[in-house]
Amino acid sequence: MSGDLPLNINIKEPRWDQGTFMGRAQHFFMVTDPRNVLLSSEVLEDARVTVENYRLGVVKPGLTEDQLWRAKYIYDSAFHPDTGEKMLLVGRMSAQVPMNMTITGCMLTFYRTTPAVVFWQWVNQSFNAVVNYTNRSGDAPLTMNQLGAAYVSATTGAVITALGLKSLTKHLPAIMGRFVPFAAVAAANCINIPFMRQRELKYGIPITDVEGKRLGESTKAAQQAIVQVVVSRIGMAVPAMAIPPVIMNALEKKAFMKRFPVLNAPVQVGLVGLCLVFATPLCCALFPQKSSMKVSSLEPEVQERIRQSNPHATTVYFNKGL
């Protein structure tokens, strides 16, 4: 296939069928691959040039189909789908496993004192704020004032939630205390994501027809997108924050762990990392990245505009974000 790669390969869409869970899972295993974090700027730039040139009908000599798809997934892992800008390194989905395994492992290890809960919840929600901003839907810029207000409201709400839940578990069995970080993260995601993406809820996100032609913006689409992302993020946290506490509760009773308590944190981090390697792509795959909505479910004024400009459209599509 070398030298005569056809120009009809649709790299605007994922390689695998996004109408099935397995197809989406294969797609997100590639996008969230932690090894993508280690790729150099030169490799990322080469992938960007390869993808953008191919879309313009320019094929690099000797390029194979597998190399083209590899470039497309490197591009998808590092560049925003709406703006085309290179995303912040720690905000990319490929950074989820190394970043979250460290932060979550520490939250599960240092949960007994209030200062530790406050500090690690603040670190976690600050990281989540970066991820939510980096993976937002749409291409409208946020001002520093809007970003600052969203960050403060999101992190403050999340930390207060964590402290409230911690106080409720004082009289419960010790094992219940281990689940405070998970409950706090689940509740905080319901606060952090809408706050960091509040501009979308106010002004809407871009919606297109099946061919990708922009039809306007919709707040209803933004609401659906954010609900789906909240569900996915809570799903990601379930295995990583529910399974290790049970295992660690049993291990800490063993003589070996009592003799070497310093192993507590690294073992916890390792267990969390193992869970996240699978939970991150599988929970991203719960909903298609390119989500859809019936025109009849949109705001009345948006429906009217679509009827005038594209009377045959019955469904609109949008990037839900991650």
How does this model look, in words?
It holds the Pfam family SFXNs. The chain crosses the membrane at residues 175-195, 225-247, 267-287. The chain is mainly α. It is 61% helix and 6% strand. The chain is built from 13 helices and four strands. It has helices at 21-31, 41-55, 65-78, 96-109, 114-134, 144-168, 174-178, 180-196, 198-203, 219-251, 255-259, 264-284, 300-309; strands at 205-208, 214-218, 290-294, 315-319. The chain has a two-stranded antiparallel sheet. The chain has a two-stranded antiparallel sheet with strand order 3-4. α2 crosses α3 (65-78), α5 (114-134) runs antiparallel to α6 and α8 (180-196) runs antiparallel to α10. The longest helix is centred in the last third of the chain and has 33 residues, at 219-251. It is globular, with a radius of gyration of 22 Å. The mean pLDDT is 81.
Whole-Å distance between the termini?
35 Å
Strands in their spatial order, largest beta sheet: 1-2
Radius of gyration: 22 Å
* Derived structural class: mainly alpha
Strand content: 5-15%
Q: Please write the string of helix (H) and strand (E) elements.
A: HHHHHHHHHEEHHHEHE
User: What's the overall geometry?
Assistant: globular
Ranges where pLDDT stays below 50 over 5 or more residues in a row are none
Main β-sheet, in a few words? 2 strands, antiparallel
Query: Would you report the number of β strands?
Result: 4
Estimate the helix proportion, in percent: 55-70%
Catalytic activity: L-serine(in) = L-serine(out)
Protein name: Sidoreflexin
Pfam families: SFXNs
Transmembrane segments: 175-195, 225-247, 267-287
